[in-house]
TrEMBL record:
Matches recorded under Gene3D superfamilies: Acyl-CoA dehydrogenase/oxidase, N-terminal domain (1.10.540.10), Butyryl-CoA Dehydrogenase, subunit A, domain 2 (2.40.110.10), Butyryl-CoA Dehydrogenase, subunit A, domain 3 (1.20.140.10)
Superkingdom of source: Bacteria
Keyword Oxidoreductase part of the UniProt annotation: yes
Taxonomic lineage: Bacteria, Pseudomonadati, Pseudomonadota, Alphaproteobacteria, Sphingomonadales
Keyword Hydrolase: no
UniProt cross-references to CDD domains, sorted A to Z: ACAD
Transmembrane parts of this sequence: none
UniProt keyword annotations, A-Z: FAD, Flavoprotein, Oxidoreductase
GO molecular function, one term: acyl-CoA dehydrogenase activity
Record-annotated Acyl-CoA dehydrogenase/oxidase N-terminal domain positions: 8-117
Family designation: Belongs to the acyl-CoA dehydrogenase family.
Pfam families per record: Acyl-CoA_dh_1 (PF00441), Acyl-CoA_dh_N (PF02771)
Domain Acyl-CoA dehydrogenase/oxidase C-terminal residue range list: 224-354
Protein name (Swiss-Prot/TrEMBL): Acyl-CoA dehydrogenase
Amino acid sequence: MDFAKSDIQTMLLDSAERLLSETSGVEYWREQRDNALGFDETRWAQFAELGWLALPVPEAAGGLDGTIEDVALLNIALGKALATEPYVSTVVLADHILKQSANEARAMELLGEIAGGTLRVALAHQENHAHPLSIEVTETVARTSSEGYVLNGAKIMALDAPSAARLIITARIEGEEGIGLFLLPIDQAGVATEAYALIDGTRAADIRLTDVALPADALLVGGNRGAVVLREAIDRAMIALMAQAVGAMEAANKICGAYVQERKQFGVAIGSFQAIQHIMADNFVAAHQARSMLYHALANADGDERTRAAALSAARIVVGEAGQLVSRNGIQVHGGYGLTDEYAIGHYFRRLMAIEKQFGDLIQHTERLGDSIFA
């Protein structure tokens, strides 16, 4: 990998430092948590103005045609600032799926709306009792009709769905092999949503589909291709989330480093205590290992599915364990009360916990990596 930053990456980091430093901190995070959407729509519009939403979008749709490395670099900055905007759902997941759509003209139009900040899209795939790493669909079925399709089924934990205007629904097409990826308005007749907040202040929803009638062109990707595209999109989303976790860890370490130099006990800064120094050293090493494994996942992002899956699971394990270590140690050096709402480290703790559970947790990725090694 080339670790030298390109012009577009330098521009991204400069703009991220300016905007996110102005709109972050405990008071801001608490304000957004109480917001109905979980984030500030004004700042989302600023993301669009700065070109962040256009980053992976093709030039033909008004985008920057950036790489997954560009996306990861920006998401490190978003992770440092604990950004709760639906960037991964709309700009990473939906972007990749739409680019594979059979209707290229319609896809370019939608991608242009994403780049402009006027459209947000969420993936609704996970089903009750299904393994989080599985892409199989059993409960949601699309039946062909004279006008297109009729969908019935249920989805759980659709990340960022409460703020999305459209959903990408995965469904098993009756009488066909594979799965289909369908695009539909969230207010479509027959679609019922139950929204809720997650522990880190982001939003998700459970979706119920009852005789949802869709035209034929609502099918973005079908047949055996659907599973391949879905897996690619989820893998890219995992890379972006790991990048946010790396950014969050590095910010948490900076917060803890400042705290142990300011907090005094027995007349001296607690950072002078050997036990605290050991904790901070462990955190420093863990964050750097997490960044290294993020690079490992990026290096294999375009590999074959088996190689990519093994690299991603290995990275998810290291990043997940590092996130737990850094955030828990951060609470510890704050004397436990860092978990309260008034301290920034508690917000990083909750964000890292939520990221570790998305698209498979530590146990599930350990099992998948083991299966890959011993296959």
